[in-house]
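Fig. S4 source data, part A: sequence.
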Amino acid sequence: MKLLILFATLLVGVIGVNQTRADNPAPRLICVYDSTSFTRAGAGKLAISELEPALQFCSHLVYGYAGLHNDNSKLIPLHKDLDTDKEKHYLTITNLKKKYPHLKVLLSVGGGRDENPEKYLSMLEASVNRMAFINSAHALVKTYNFDGIDLAWQFPPNKPKKIRGSIGKFWKGFKKIFSGDSTLDEKAEEHKEEFTSLVRELKNAFRADNLAVSLTVLPNVNSSIFIDVGAIINYLDFVTLAAFDFQTPTRNPKEADFPAPLYELNERNPEHNVNYQVQYWLNGHCPATKINVGIPAYGRAWTMTSDSGITGVPPIAETEGEAPAGMSSLEPGFLSWPEVCAKLPNPSNSHLKGADAPLRRVGDPTKRFGTYAYRIPDDNGDHGMWVGYEDADTAGNKASYVRAKGLGGIALFDLSNDDFAGRCTGDRYPLLRAAKARL
């Protein structure tokens, strides 16, 4: 009798485990690969041979970016010579599935790389344009053996807002009575319905070939304005929230702050954090398992001035916009993780001064906001820098958040900004590895 009870208990346990696995599929690890990194010179170029070591960790590779034809809204490569004509990079990428059969490869559209963002709204307004896009997308995906489309749609981003205390918030509200708010999109409700139609029609066209349709919500895009969560979610395989770049030196040149906090900070915009963005989609009845949290593999860097203070504690006032570009990424105010890592204290820079002096790193024991590093200006007011960034610790913290919430996974933006060559510590893709380990 005891053996019978034990057998029954074990059977119930096995059924329970199997049911749990069925209800909670393996987490996604979305690896974003921006093809512009392939065209860089020097250490910033991510060649296929250096891409491959990451693919053992990735469940999906999202290849960016394609765009819209200016005249007819058809889907076209943004780097035609690279992607489809001379080097046929599309086929090089999708052929990697032969070596990594677990990998799904999606072609991403927009991603902030298309130089004419206005057409992303205008094409929604005519069904003939939507069908031209869908037909061309289907043909492109099938021709080059992609597993689907990722819609990193270029909706207009929110206007940047200054961090305010209670008095500033009161004054802003008082001014609204007389001036009103500037409108982001005069036809927002129409565009929301039209985007729903696009997603529905695209999924219906892709369904017969079992092709995926996913959505990436780009940084600073207000989902409540452009996206009807409840109406589109059944037509999407998953949604990636690029919940970062809330503060950048381009959008907020006079004030530095955490670019991608996990939770809300005091006296900040309550929407500018990962948790708020996730909760918005959950409240809109999006299944948790369809939500991926985007993690940037880079930092945003401001120039500190003599008036910025000496503590380094954000928010940092009186900054002067973008810090100088890194030697590999070549973008002012932007530093890839290996570029940040090289500026942290190490034996090779401990004796250096001026613009080459090391930054002081400040970790995040609360696991809520992020890591930053800074260097106060010298006696002449020069060489000050403040950078908020992701490292292995914060990437792991966000992966733990995803696991605790029962979300679908994480997405790394992008592989070329992680330390793909292992220049900093000798480990390749440390942020990707850290996130994978915590998932």
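Fig. S4 source data, part B ends here. Confidence is low (pLDDT under 50) at residues 1-22, 170-181.
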